[in-house]
Design brief:
This protein has five helices and 15 strands. By secondary structure, it is α+β, with helices and mostly antiparallel strands. It is globular, with a radius of gyration of 17 Å. The structure holds N-[2-(1H-indol-5-yl)-butyl]-4-sulfamoyl-benzamide and zinc ion (ZN).
């Protein structure tokens, strides 16, 4: 893992961005130390209402691949949990390693997972556009789900089958009727939550993180297709595999991680 972080620093300096945003005392990702998390009985269950018809496209943005949703109405939303407002789903994406030994951004008691899913939502009660919300400290809510290698994930396969069409940076294909709810584990009641940031530039400190305790399983072959994507565009002569697209862990700076379960 350490070597992956060093590799990242060498090969993709943009990944590290400024080591800490000037005055940045709520950066992400972090290691979740379970016994230091504070059980908060006020934390409510998460309420997700996702409409598969708001799914629009899948594209390679040169960091990861994103599945984007129409967020011009409140059709796919997240509320409850630690949140006071209603948040609109705008996209989901993943982070993964070059091997199954590492790849997640968050860790639990230093435990690494081969990949991590992020479902990105913005506060549509307070703001009218994602671009606005991303600059505000209560602007975004991201659900993090750990992936483990095991049995094939049937719901993920439709997405995996679309990846060869977006191998290169800036390629995009239409992608419709995908229910992101199929990527959530059966238990979404148990989670940790803390205030942090985007894990890619501009690293803005606008995210309420909700990290699910239960992971999902995907097959080795499905994860291998993630690794067949490229960081580079079709024109570049040197092609670079899209792997290790995670940020190194950031200091907690006195923040409290709350848990919804004992
Ligand atoms: C402000 C940055 C944003 C692009 N980045 C993201 O949306 C983003 C979202 C989630 C995460 S993570 N890994 O923490 O979950 C990291 C980055 C961004 C930047 C400029 C833009 N112009 C129009 C739209 C738009 C979006
Ligand atoms: Zn992410």
């Amino acid at each position: 893992m350490q070597e992956a972080a060093e590799y990242n620093m060498k090969m993709h300096p943009m990944w590290q961005g400024p080591l800490a945003v000037p005055g940045g005392d709520r950066q992400s990702p972090i290691d979740i130390i379970v016994q230091r998390s504070i059980i908060d009985s006020e934390l409510k269950p998460l309420v997700t209402e996702y409409d598969p018809h708001t799914c629009q496209q899948i594209w390679n943005n040169g960091y990861s691949f994103l599945v984007e949703y129409d967020d011009t109405t409140d059709k796919s939303t997240l509320k409850g949990g630690p949140l006071q407002d209603k948040f609109r789903l705008c996209q989901f994406h993943f982070h993964w390693g070059e091997t199954n030994a590492w790849g997640s951004e968050h860790t639990v008691d230093r435990r690494l997972f081969p990949a991590e899913l992020h479902l990105v939502h913005w506060n549509s009660d307070k703001y009218s556009l994602f671009e606005e919300a991303v600059m505000e400290d209560n602007g975004l809510a991201v659900i993090g789900v750990f992936l483990k290698v095991g049995k094939r994930h049937e719901g993920l396969q439709k997405l995996v089958d679309a990846l060869p069409a977006i191998r290169h940076k800036d390629s995009v294909v239409e992608f419709t009727r995908f229910d992101p709810g199929c990527l959530l584990p059966s238990n979404i009641e148990d989670y940790w939550t803390y205030h942090g940031s985007l894990t890619t530039p501009p690293l803005t400190e606008s995210v309420t993180w909700i990290i699910l305790k239960q992971h999902i399983e995907v097959s080795h072959d499905q994860l291998a297709v993630f690794r067949s994507l490229l960081f580079t565009s079709a024109e570049e002569e040197v092609q670079k595999s899209m792997v290790n697209n995670f940020r190194v862990q950031q200091p907690l700076r006195g923040r409290t991680v709350r848990s919804s379960f004992t």
